[in-house]
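[job 0412] stage=fold_complex status=start
inputs:
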Amino acid sequence: MNDISGSNERSGNGDLTSEGRRKSCWYEEEIEQDLRWCYALNSILHTGASQYQDIALLDTRPFGKALVIDGKLQSAEMDEFIYHESLVHPALLHHPNPKTIFIMGGGEGSTAREILRHKNVDKVVMCDIDEQVVDFCKSYLVANREAFCDTRLHITINDARAELERREECFDVIIGDLADPIEGGPCYQLYTKSFYESTVKPRLNEGGIFVTQAGPAGVFSHTEVFSCIYNTLRQVFKYVVPYSAHIPSYADTWGWVMASDSPFKADTEELDARIKQRIKGENRYLDGKTFASASILSKAVRKSLDKETQVYTEGTARFIYGHGTAHKLNHAHA
Amino acid sequence: MNDISGSNERSGNGDLTSEGRRKSCWYEEEIEQDLRWCYALNSILHTGASQYQDIALLDTRPFGKALVIDGKLQSAEMDEFIYHESLVHPALLHHPNPKTIFIMGGGEGSTAREILRHKNVDKVVMCDIDEQVVDFCKSYLVANREAFCDTRLHITINDARAELERREECFDVIIGDLADPIEGGPCYQLYTKSFYESTVKPRLNEGGIFVTQAGPAGVFSHTEVFSCIYNTLRQVFKYVVPYSAHIPSYADTWGWVMASDSPFKADTEELDARIKQRIKGENRYLDGKTFASASILSKAVRKSLDKETQVYTEGTARFIYGHGTAHKLNHAHA
Amino acid sequence: MNDISGSNERSGNGDLTSEGRRKSCWYEEEIEQDLRWCYALNSILHTGASQYQDIALLDTRPFGKALVIDGKLQSAEMDEFIYHESLVHPALLHHPNPKTIFIMGGGEGSTAREILRHKNVDKVVMCDIDEQVVDFCKSYLVANREAFCDTRLHITINDARAELERREECFDVIIGDLADPIEGGPCYQLYTKSFYESTVKPRLNEGGIFVTQAGPAGVFSHTEVFSCIYNTLRQVFKYVVPYSAHIPSYADTWGWVMASDSPFKADTEELDARIKQRIKGENRYLDGKTFASASILSKAVRKSLDKETQVYTEGTARFIYGHGTAHKLNHAHA
Amino acid sequence: MNDISGSNERSGNGDLTSEGRRKSCWYEEEIEQDLRWCYALNSILHTGASQYQDIALLDTRPFGKALVIDGKLQSAEMDEFIYHESLVHPALLHHPNPKTIFIMGGGEGSTAREILRHKNVDKVVMCDIDEQVVDFCKSYLVANREAFCDTRLHITINDARAELERREECFDVIIGDLADPIEGGPCYQLYTKSFYESTVKPRLNEGGIFVTQAGPAGVFSHTEVFSCIYNTLRQVFKYVVPYSAHIPSYADTWGWVMASDSPFKADTEELDARIKQRIKGENRYLDGKTFASASILSKAVRKSLDKETQVYTEGTARFIYGHGTAHKLNHAHA
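[job 0412] stage=fold_complex status=done
writing structure:
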């Protein structure tokens, strides 16, 4: 049929047929002001808006379903496991027996999901400020449905600081799954020295561990907030471990910082043994060796972290481009 | 609330809040290989595929709902009236009493809709080769629902040439609402001298008029196919009128050519009078003066058309970038 | 050689070889906030900055060399003739014998170049506020070199209003080649009723004509400033003629308005005769018929202009997206 | 001055002033068919073309000067040190006393530059097939000027296989700095088992080490060619070490594979000691710990490499999107 040959003809002129056809619809993110990252789109599945932010669930070609808040990718189906396994498991595995966990932010539900895979965990409190985001994710993120229904999970809609101060109980692990600290941004107070000292530490049980997502940690991007979060935490805790992993959909290496007043003693083998004992199902990304690699930073980043002198206090904060209000969708602080 | 000030803060760093927020999702079309036209997207409403082509209905910010076939915009809610009023009304208005109309292609339904606004029209035959496109448009293009239900409309799924040859009746007006003529493309045979002579002309009643969309007609782009379609028609018909109009969503001026063996006698006032008499509802774009302006081409285009020597025959055809298989979604010829 | 077959192999996977190779470097302009227009780039020829604005000369694939000010295309080699012939010739041709011309803005030099093609013109005053732009264009715009050297051209660096008020002489034609009127923008005072009444009109000789570029004039975009410039001028002058033309590199139809207290009497033939008599060389775009077509607006635009009630006064102004400071590069007013 | 306030005004409408101004010129790379990576451009410094490929030197905002071959980024000023330190130093440092080095490809000169920093190196043979690329880089890549002048460097323009077969001498280290292996591409024969066995291994001195760039090594992208290069090398050499690092300008983690018939014995401290002894100047990226981290792959990649069964032979090859002809600019094989 001529139609077919006609179509083929076109491929010589810049368009490709069938599989190879040029994509027409794109999601575009400004990683920085002069750097863009664009995914071909299959569809825009759902959009919504809360009091605080715009929410969208996109179906992207390279990374599957992607949750986007205020024009910033929060997590993509295909590789969110890297972020969430890295955020949750190192702290829970290094703890001898974590039973109670508090999540600051985390409204997406994926952090809770990873925590709930730990058989020894009895109670998870997830405190996010944005109810609509929580509801949106409950409705649309199929991968987290089971977690949202787990009776060990207690969701509370509140500012994380207010909630921690209000509660009388302590936790074995506190996890910060919040937007990056931007001066004037909604979350930056949740990264300050005084917050860690006066609010977080008093709410950790003996031997408790605090871990927080810590923004981009690439060879250049780690100076945005990672080095400063690290330096702030080492003012407050005796043992502080920064680590990082490349997340394809973020087009960058990402960082986390784990902190405690008790030493982190589990080695590679011990971590693998605890994974086997404690975690239901199999991790896709994190095991003992992965953590060993992740916690050895490259020379460039290591030197820069060593030399970092800035500390987040109420009066200081660094900017991370665009990830402002949003980077992790959880706005736990008003 | 801090969230708000946080949001505002961001706007100083490249992002804009609320209304002014940077758009994340875009539809992108390659007008030419080195020229792109991009609309911000609200959503991707429907997608589908036929035996011949991919179909999508997008909700775009600048132009409303947009029908896209094989990665090429077919028509956009906000300005398709310019294309369809220009294609249909000049021919029907110049004809003294058009009762029967044949549409080659036109599966979108908008051409039929404009024809059916003429009270004197008794019968419209729309012949499109792609049933799925017709069904898609029937289902999703709300503006054409009424037209699709009009009992005067007869839809037939066939190659336009085969259909015209098969039928014994003649028509007052025959309208070509087809993809542009591309060598090897599905429609180029429907623009050849022999097709016009042997198939179209014999199916026109005495005083009948043929009109066809004729591709881009901009100062530069008119040489792609417009001048050649014009020149081909003037080999076959005594009176040939090329005209054009700028269509914002196409990012170009578009062309049509009207042809007959009877002279086109209606002047501006007569056209306006006939519009009042014959057409239900009010035209948004076309009236006597609009047509007067549209049918006076600029010096650059006029000279170029005068000098055109190429004629579409089975063995020749010109290329129009990308608009290949698709430009008007109707593939009336296999 | 394998290299070749290797290259061919790739073309099946999305890249095209040689001529058809995918372009890597692009110029991107936001026509509106949700509409982008992108040209493939060959090179970035020159960049500069003045006290007022950033200047760049790009070599684009679709439109040749392009002058860009503050991220907005000013004029492109391939089609600037449409803008400049349309701005200059209708006014000069309708005037019985234009000898002295004043250009508000026009630092690019192309407006002067078209004026200087008129043999009867004795003196052209070009008043632009930005010396660096004038110098940049003098250096790099080869097409205007001869014009910049013409002894009839007098360049003065000043605010156009101040200059017109300072001067005692009158002119046969005054031409506004300025950025669009944006509230708070640098040029909007040069589009107000009081400016036209108190500054422009007193500087026109008997029978003098004023003409100004008037922003986008598309079916939708004409409401941004075109209709209001038209309506403001008809408060001040007895005879006002709006006209428009599609300019491919602008991705829109553009508008101009010509105004006088003497009637515009030259018809199509008379215009053609005067072109022959008065203009050196041949116009590429404008002749009698082109102007006839350009000055008959489509129904949609005509109705909208008729109904326009807004008048630019010091206290009002309409917004035209992005073309703010810049659209025509000439900032004749501080 | 109004101009200034005018400019500020605009920033509320989508454009940003001065520093924050929206960028107009972009370099765009298709990482994959549905994934784009775009840098704002300051300028296009030089362009050229060889018999094999197009060459450009761009000045990008996020990554400085960038060498682009056939539309694919080869290396960017700001982070090419990660790629080149990772390619060169692990092999040279693990070797007890590397004196003679052969580079397959490497026309850019950066690989040679890193090798020449080793004081014990006596002779470097760089064999690239594309003389124009070598000349272009010699002329324009300032960072490599000194290296190109080093008398220890011997540049030869030839196919790497032909050159290795022609020579009678052996080398302490052979380095593959070639485009990725794509079926039908120019370099894929330089990644086959038979090439390693019959051409590379016989040209290594006792204790010699072979190392090659090995394509993307991200959590998903490592299956394109990295795992297969690794698996092919372990068919041929007794000791094979895959390692990786995130390279910001590539928007991905990149991989290298080091192979030898002698064990790799240097530990972290030994590597650091050798760096101090042997290397002139200071590494920015690579030290003992960096290599320790780089050579522990994440669980996901490790498992996938273990299970890899494919071996590159003359008859097999995997595709890596777009990086086809080009990824490393050196086309050492015809």
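[job 0412] summary: Residues 80-94 of chain A form the longest helix (15 residues).
[job 0412] exit 0
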